[in-house]
Design a protein that fits this description.
Layout: H1 2-8, H2 12-26, H3 31-41
Helix pairs in contact: 2-3
């Protein structure tokens, strides 16, 4: 969370508020579950390019 806040130039509290809203919308308990659900819903796509 501190790194995300720093990269986006927002407070850690703002990051936590956004994460809480995302978790609620996805009915997820944590970041991992939110990512898995977002991938399954097609909201997030995994790109193999490395």
């Amino acid at each position: 969370t501190p790194e995300v806040a720093q990269r986006l130039f927002i407070s850690q509290k703002t990051v936590k508020n956004h994460l809480a809203a995302i978790y609620a919308k996805l009915d997820a308990r944590d970041r991992t579950e939110a990512v898995v659900k977002a991938i399954r819903m097609g909201v997030v796509r995994i790109d193999d390019r490395d």
